[in-house]
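Thread title: Can someone regenerate the structure for this chain?

I was given the following input by a collaborator and told the matching structure tokens would be attached. They weren't. Posting the sequence so someone can regenerate them.
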Amino acid sequence: MLSPLPASFYERNTVEVARALLGMRLVRWYRQTRLCGIIVEAEAYRGEEDLACHARSGYTSRTRVMYGPPGHAYVYFTYGMHWMLNVVTEREGFPAAVLIRAVEVVEGHSVVAERRAGVPAHHWTDGPAKLCQAFAIDGSLNSADLTNPESGLWIEPGTPFTDSIILSGPRVGIDRVPEPWRSMPWRFRVDTHRGHPFETSMV
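Best answer:
Regenerated them for you:
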């Protein structure tokens, strides 16, 4: 097992972190099994001025984790049925995070297959809610320290993808957000995966 990425990895501009997370390895220790997926899509949300960011409403019981130290998990519930995993970034006191939108499973296939029963393997984790279901990530992991394996959830170094296969563009599901935030190119994803475009769903 590799040592998790240090807090210093996350303590920088959120957009930079979102791009740098592609190729890193999301790890979940679940029922004595190591689940691992290569991060292939991520989105940046940065500051109270970003009207697509939960912090637009300021410090609340929901967003308090975003104002905390970098390298912690911000896990929230949405659509009344889905969990979403984010990584807190930048300095403590400045609310920002990266939404992990998709991973490619490389370890723990049998457990993931059970948790995503009836779903084709290429759709196991191709959306932020899907990966949380596959990796048993829920509100109990909100504020988990992603730099400490004892939390049961962490991110390890991986092999970064070259810029030639990375696409950037507007974030997903924010059609009602005003400009310029709606069009900020803060979504990063792998263009070529296993020889074909890797498309993901909203949830």
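The longest strand covers residues 33-46.
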